[in-house]
Amino acid sequence: MEAQGSRRRQLPVLLLWVNGLMTLGFAGARQRTDLCNESLMLEKLPACGKSFEEMMKKVDSKKWCNLTEFIMYYDNFTQCTEREANNASCFWPNPLAEGFITGIHKQFFSNCTSEKVHWEDPPDEILITLILIPVMLTCAMITLVVWCSKRSDIL
């Protein structure tokens, strides 16, 4: 019985010790302490842009706004920028990489504007029908509720 009480007192100490080990990273999680080498990353990113530019020369400039024409090239570009950022011990995306990617977008996709949808009202016959159906159903439901509440003796 006394041994059981001793174990109960040791349990919180054991739990604190395990928590400390996990916090320090001994539980399998490796903490990354490398600092981001921004100058190395900025030195390597233009190679990704150059490669993307070479691939985009294969696509007619009139089709630059059609993503299906160059999606593979853009995917390669994205993977390249991510790889170079990781090689420089930087997270991706980061403000510097985003600035570089934005510059590439301005270079290739600045003339791509989204077409705005022009919304129109439906024809009057359809609009009147769409308005009257819920109004009539609401009136019918109110009538049914009132009628049922007055005839509660039958129900």
From TrEMBL:
Gene Ontology cellular-component annotations: cell surface; plasma membrane; receptor complex
Record's bilayer topology term: Single-pass type I membrane protein
TM ranges: 12-29, 126-148
Location in or out of the cell: Cell membrane
GO BP annotation list: calcium ion transport; cellular response to hormone stimulus; G protein-coupled receptor signaling pathway; intracellular protein transport; protein localization to plasma membrane; receptor internalization; regulation of G protein-coupled receptor signaling pathway
Keywords: Cell membrane, Disulfide bond, Glycoprotein, Membrane, Receptor, Signal, Transmembrane, Transmembrane helix, Transport
Record bears the keyword Glycoprotein: yes
Molecular function (Gene Ontology), one example: coreceptor activity
Family: Belongs to the RAMP family.
Xref: PANTHER family: RECEPTOR ACTIVITY MODIFYING PROTEIN RAMP, RECEPTOR ACTIVITY-MODIFYING PROTEIN 3
Name of the protein: Receptor activity-modifying protein 3
